[in-house]
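TL;DR need structure tokens for one chain.
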Amino acid sequence: MSAKILVIDDDRDHAESIVDILSMRGYDVEAAFSGEAGVEIFKEQDFDLVFMDVKLPGMNGVETFFEFKKIRPDARVMMMTGYSLEQLIAQAIENGALGVLRKPFAIQDLFHILNEVKPRGMIVVADDDPDFAASLEPMLVSQGYRVVTAATGSEALEKASADGVNCLVLDVSMPILTGIDVYLRLKERGKSVPTIFVTGAGDKTSALAQLNPDNGVLLKPFNPSDLLKAIAVATSGGSKPTAHG
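>> reply
TL;DR here they are.
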């Protein structure tokens, strides 16, 4: 699935040239020519990355960026400018903008940024403890993942059945449908998604590892870095991570 990009620049020629170049490389790209128009598009669609001119008529690029963060706190925005607007740029970067591209910039610089920040895929985190899922979401988002949470096994099964899911993090002990039930039902449907089981029961890790030999098992409580390693291994097809507690 190609990354979805939004380009916001009141210089139509510049914006459209970026759209053309990225479209030819297979990216899904849209353009807006004002901050206000960009906000309206951003409300309706989810973008992996936004290239935003700082100096826009009406609402400037930094003000637009702040609106994006209200709509989606994990918005990923790269500022662009041909002017010396250090104070505005500093405001944006202090509040989470990825950086700044100085116009005119080389096409290679554009592709370098895209390669650095390309999305790592979608993860479904399923656990009947809402605090556990909530604690994992910001950490995974900060690493470039899109995160969908589920509080029950049936909800997890529904969300895991959708297209575009790259990895499942399944609590074993959910009511009605357990994490194991979700995993097995997906297999019955012929849908193979890399899966990491999490459990608070140490005596279950060996059986879970046998059930899910190609992926992994983590014993609660675990270090968040262990989850990131497990996801990286599971989605790359490497050898399974060992259980940690």
